[in-house]
Amino acid sequence: MGCKTLTAFAVLSATALAFAAPTTYEAEDLAGATVVEDADYSGGKYAKPADASGIIFTVKVEETAVYDITTKVLIKQFDWITSKIAVNGVDVGSMLTTPRNCDSSYVVSASAKMKAGENKITVGNQALGVDYITVERHPDPVFKISDSPVTPNASESARKVYSFLRENFGKKTVSGMMISDQNFNYDYGNMRLIPPGGCTPADSCKFSDTEVSWKGQTDIAEFYKRSGHYPAIGGFDMLFAAGGHHEEGWFRGYTENNLLMTEELWEMGGIPTYTWHWKVGEDTVFYTQGTPAGFNNPGCTEDVMGTSNTNTCFNYTKAFKGDKCQEIDETSQEYKDIVADVDIVSGYFKQLEEKGIAVLWRPLHEASGGWFWWGTASAECYVQLYRLVFNRMVKTNKLTNLIWVWNINTDPKFGYDYSALNAAWYPGDEYVDIVAVDIYDPLNDHNSAANYYNKIVSDVGTNKMIALSENGAIPDIDSIAEDKAYWSYWMTWSQTWSGNFLEKTPTDMWKKNLDDKRIIALDNMPGWDNVSADITPVRHVTANKLTVSQLGNNVAVTLAQSGRVDIAIFDMLGHQVASLAKGNLLAGTLQFSLDGIARGNYVVRAKIDGANYAKRIRVK
Q1: What pLDDT does residue 5 have?
Q2: Are 13 and 60 in contact (CB under 8 A)?
Q3: d(CA 30, CA 56)
Q4: At what angle do helices 218-227 and 507-515 cross, to 10 degrees?
Q5: What is the pLDDT of residue 102?
Q6: Is the pLDDT score of 131 beyond 80?
Q7: CA Rg, the chain, in Å?
Q8: Residue 470 annotated to the active site
Q9: 9, 81 contact by CB (below 8 A)
Q10: Pairing between strand 554-559 and 546-551?
């Protein structure tokens, strides 16, 4: 059966008042609406937009805050184009570009800041019918951060870093800056890094002692030039620690200089963070190319490590058995290559551990993106790879000085805005201390990125601190505070190696934010001798009124007290797939069958008398 094309008509508008409870605005009620009501529209009433400008709802709200917007749309053709949800002319979410079924309706969600007074919400395009929107003030999350890091018997320094970040989470944001290009002097004849003060005339050193210091590195010096402060977090990369050429002079010097600068930063009271652009074995690249990406690329063949200077074919799934990587295959060359590299990096972190230094460690970053080799397989295989790295470093190599940062990412299969963040790749609470995301805001408008923040809360939960592990333009602290999207830290990506990301923020914005007491710069750090490793439990502001548990393909919701309840199931992209209960309910346990819901990861969201709860479940 072919898909029908929607008939064009004029853009519509309506005005209504949003209260604390969700408010629904029917497109059919709009003045001049052309409404279709027949079996092809699943029995519903859908307004038909004229063109890509969509349908406009005028909504009044009483306070400036972040609001959740939900819309139900109908797709009437296969070759529909991406349709945005916009608030006051700014895109806040998309309908996503995944293939949809003809004559099917979908519920799509977004979050956006709205100012007190009138706001314009635009939905749809010519390929969509619009049923309604709902508007509701986004609830303030209640975090339940663990008292200690996930690493068993974490070192004193790791507990200090964790304690410091946990104490400031929700109150202040720590500033950070990445270093890419480095200034260092190296004695290539004797294969040794020359530390500050170590140069002799015979060495013919290229850089002065000031230039090779952490503060003298180009990225850090440029940060100071713009802001008048040094960042509290310094970003480093294990980029050349393993892979082809890693034992050669300059590459080895780069890694050893990382360690030297890390020690210097720690002594100044700063926090080092490491990522790993991982080149496996003798490979010299980490990017994948082509569609499909990585080892799925038709140009990749068996036992080929790389097909070009910019493309790797490394297939990490061969380190496991089963189509979902259920079991490690220790006999495979891929497993041996992986653990050999992990052991190399572990050795460098062990040197820091022996000096009492802890680091924020972000391996296998930008998980579902697909542009790195570790993101080219399934979510299930990625999780097993992450756990392999964790277990090798923590349980086998006995590292205790790492704070584990997991980097959620958009999934190109679904889109590139916050709606496409894919939490199915989450390794699990027992493997992660901080959930982070990378955002390069194309508008450079210094917004809080609350929609990303709230998406993480919704899909991953409130058991972990949330950070901005890479950014271009910095989020303005006033926007962060107004939207209650308090990132634990942000880290601007490098200025060097043609990054130029410091330029995404004007000097007055740099000064304003780094001068603000709610932003922690290096000169605001207390010094590690003044930070306690004993972590004081956080007192939660809401009682546990509701619990959710899963037994097989059934969900049980237990209410500790009677109250007004709204319980629904959402997929990992924020689409509501089922409403379980709504209204005034008595205390007790409710059972719900998951039969009829497709296999995959979901979130049960429940509200009871203003308190909010979210739990991830998996339908098998």
Answers
A1: 30
A2: no
A3: 9
A4: 80
A5: 57
A6: yes
A7: 26
A8: yes
A9: no
A10: antiparallel
* Distance between CA atoms of residues 493 and 497, nearest Å: 11
CA atoms 253, 256, 259, 260: torsion sign: negative
Kindly state the tokens that stand for 363: 């391996």
pLDDT grade, residue 363 (50/70/90)?
Answer: very high
Span of 136-145, 167-176, 211-220 with lowest mean pLDDT: 136-145
Contact 401, 414 (CB under 8 A): no
Q: Which amino acid is at 31?
A: A
Of 327, 366, 430, 482, the active-site residue reads 366
* Dist CA 329 CA 321 (whole Å): 6
Find out whether 426 and 383 touch, Cβ atoms under 8 Å: yes
Q: Would strands 65-75 and 35-36 be described as parallel, antiparallel, or unpaired?
A: unpaired
Residues 6+ apart with CB under 8 A from 247: none
How far is it, in rounded angstroms, from Cα 604 to Cα 576?
10
Structure tokens, 573: 């992209």
pLDDT at 82: 57
- Domains identified in the chain and CATH numbers: 15-137 (2.60.120.260), 156-530 (3.20.20.80), 546-619 (2.60.40.3080)
Looking at every residue in the chain, the average pLDDT score rounds to 85
Please tell me the least confidently modeled range out of 101-110, 440-449, 452-461.
101-110
3-state DSSP of 397-418 = CCCCCEEEEEEECECCCCCCCH
Calculate mean pLDDT across residues 66-73: 85
The length of the chain in residues reads: 620
Residue 361: closest CA among 328, 410, 396, 399: 399
Q: What's the rounded Cα separation, in Å, for the pair 423 and 407?
A: 10
Q: What is the pTM of this model?
A: 0.79
Residue pair 157/357 in contact by the 8 Å Cβ criterion: yes
Joined tokens for residue 392: 């090798």
- SS3 of the chain: helix, strand, coil, percent, to 5: 25, 30, 45
Phi-psi map region of 170: left, alpha, beta (phi>0 left; psi -120 to 50 alpha): left
Mean pLDDT of 297-315: 69
Three-state DSSP state, 45: coil
Q: Tell me if residue 211 is catalytic.
A: no
User: Residue 268's pLDDT is what?
Assistant: 98
Options 267, 282, 470, 482, the catalytic residue: 470
Quick one: average pLDDT of 475-500?
96
Number of Cα atoms under 13 Å in the Cβ half of residue 532: 5
The pLDDT of 259-268, averaged and rounded, is: 98
d(CA 580, CA 567): 5
